[in-house]
Amino acid sequence: MQSYTAALFTGGPVAHLLDLAIRVQASQGALSLDDEIRRYARLVAASQTANRNCPVRTGAALLDFLGDLLERKALGDVPQEFTEKLSAASEGTDPAEYLHTLAGIVRILDRDLPPEYGELPMNSWEAGLAFPYLTGFTAQLTDDLESATVADAVRAYIAAEHPFCSDSLAPWAAEAHRALVLFPDAAAQRENLLPAIPWISPDALRELLATVDDHMHREHS
To answer: Are 86 and 25 in contact (CB under 8 A)?
Structure first.
């Protein structure tokens, strides 16, 4: 039977945490590994689905598990993508020791309460994962040259998707409401969401919600 254990190395928390470590190194001091891991822990904690399927402590345990296998030389064949990523993240230190160290950092930071957004704003990757539908709507605004406003872009999307538009409109509306609750003023939205959602503003979100609500009342009630 074919083994699919390669997914342990190429996706999920192991790959994501190593990506964060590499991102920090590539920033040449502009980013903090602790802050990136705090964002990772906050993102997982904010999603019941993510927290149920793979809580942060499980990601730390997987790093330790792989470190143990490396120490015992029992890891066997692994995808080249993982070995290259681990080499880049460990930067010349012992790979097994690095995995244990990273696991320890994750475990320690996960014991704290998630930081408030005013203390540690979202960055582009966290906002993109926390608000995937609003982030994706950026392409709709950019590609539809006839849409002069957010409402026009929403109506153009609805026209193309109706009567199945509710599949997308419901999560759009949910994310828009969440963004307004978490970041009710323009300054907070710019600091937390602007890198991932360049059209973001309280007025734009309310315009999106009003257009969605109007369509649902007229066509789906």
So the answer is: no
Confidence (pTM) = 0.89
Percent of the chain with pLDDT over 70: 95
Overall residue count recorded for the chain in this entry:
221
Would you place residue 216 in the very low, low, confident or very high pLDDT band (cuts 50, 70, 90)? confident
Q: What DSSP assignment string belongs to 3-36?
A: --TTHHHHSHHHHHHHHHHHHHHHTTTSS-HHHH
Closest CA to 136 of 189, 175, 88, 87: 175
Mean pLDDT, to the nearest integer, of 33-49?
96
Burial (CB count within 10 angstroms: exposed 0-12, middle 13-18, buried 19+), residue 68? middle
Residue 141 CA to residue 171 CA, distance in Å, equals 17
Residues 15 and 7: beta-carbon distance below 8 Å: no
CA nearest neighbour of 16 among 85, 98, 92, 100: 85
d(CA 202, CA 187): 10
Contact (CB, 8 A) for 127 and 135:
yes
